[in-house]
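hey all, quick one before standup. I had two proteins in the batch that finished overnight and I want to keep them in one place so we stop losing track of which output belongs to which input. First protein below, input sequence then structure tokens straight from the run.
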Amino acid sequence: MMQIFVTGLNHNTAPIAVRERASFTREQLPEALSRLREKFDEGVILSTCNRTEIYTLTDSPGQASSHILSLISDFHGLDTNILEGHSYSLEGADAARNLFRVSSGLDSMILGESQILGQVRTALSAAAYARTVHSVMLQLFHTAIGTGRRVREETDVSRSSLSVSYAAVKLAESFLGSVSRLKVLLVGAGESGTLVAQALRSSGVRDITIANRTPERSAEMAEELGGKTVPFSELEHAVSQADICIAATDASEPLLSRATVASAVDSRPEGSLFLFDLSVPRNIAPEAGNVKGVNLFNIDDLSAIAAQNLRGRQAAAGDAEVIVEAEVAQFMSWLDTLEATPVIKAMRLQADEIRRRELDRALRDIKGLSEADITKLEAMTRSIVNRMLHGPTTTLKDRIGEDFLEAAREMFLRPGDVA
């Protein structure tokens, strides 16, 4: 029987050094989904700074896990053994629950952070464009998105919760004190970069410089924030002028090497340089943290702030878990009904064939019946079959289970029929 299946790794099972090598950029998704389609009828790739998860439909979980890990390994040139040591696989209701918790912000490093819901939508859109989602995956992800919205609207799990961007600012404040008078360089003007800039503005920062590969986007963002722009080609000089540099792009290679950072520090005024790399894959070479006067942090360094955020929101998280469980039960009930439909259809077809055959035999033996009489007999026999099948049909829908459904398949599906 086909079932929901997921294999992946996240911030709880893998360090950033592994996650960044297994992640897929937006530009890589079409090719990755195309390869996924070679093995599975349906599939979605959810890749964020905290996780890479591949959701599929399969009737062979062991094989599915192997195929998915091989896809990630082959695509990125990774040793499969490394992935196996940090990955997990879930099937059926557990796989659905995992996705619903993810979309609700319950499995994020920062409990309740809202950016993940948009990332789930983006993953679904990419899969829809690549034609790797049909009825089951569409329903799964639409339900996940709906669950995320419910959790945010009906619980306090996201109210006043920290975003990753605000957590980054708090981390900077814990080392530098007030950041309001400091000079900030933001590398990247995408969604994450925009959120960081807004968080910095809320913390009183007024001197913000934006460096982005697309000058038009830098200009738009600078106008919104009252900041200024710098050409990407002058990135090293811009780093030397900043007190805080936050990198948040989707570049697949480091934008700031150790040598670049060291050179920037040599030519900057006195004072330490705070570097925060929000990106996965990382935009700042890890070795840059060894340069004297540099404090380098990445997304995994938010764990202490994440723990503090979690302690204050345990009750809200419990309310959210109740919603998730209700949505999982409803989705699995829908999926069970979908699984039962071919069996119910085959059962009714078989019963109707018997009804029609026996009625035709009776009509050959009974002479002199009018058309009206034949119509009445037709209606009567249909009614008898419908009444007899009502109970079994309801039972199949209400008490569906693997053993129960398999027994029904054997009774009513002929060889070659598709269930």
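OK second protein, same deal, sequence then tokens:
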Amino acid sequence: MLQALTLSGSVRFDSQNALLARAMGKKLALVGAEGNNIDLVDYELALFNADLERSGDQPENAIKLAHLFAKADIIFIASPEYNGSISPLLKNTIDWISRQKVAPFHRAIFGIGAASPGKMGGVSGLKHLRDILTSVGGLVAPTSLGIGNSSNILDKTGLLMEDNTNKRADNLVTQLISISRNP
């Protein structure tokens, strides 16, 4: 069975991106992937600093996250857009995970998406996220999912309430399943 991991680059209460991560987890489960939705608030990390890394004292949460990433066949990241890029929380998390020895970015196929109250759906930040994931060895699905006016499309339970968005999300799930590196 495929192992799927979903997460949001936001820990804000009522985050639209957290709802998107849960929605994609539900969609992945419907096609047979075993899902695990994580909340980065449970994996607090110090600001990345090479001096901390050189000391050999790796944060326990970075190690835990790296192992979760390394075991996953599919990882979906819902990324809020901060000033045209990704959140500092998500960047810091990726930086710490990328320094771990378990090759956390080499097994899974990554799906990326963003939910935003604006019209553009956070797509500017998704370009940066794709570049970052690729630079650390991640394989990112060709399709990304930007959801504009997200408060009208995502309900509080993590369901997509608009047909076109559901079709785009289903297309991404199909890509993730078909590209997955799982034998």
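Flagging for whoever picks this up: Strands lie at 3-8, 34-38, 74-78, 109-115, 139-140, 145-147. The chain has one domain: 3-179.
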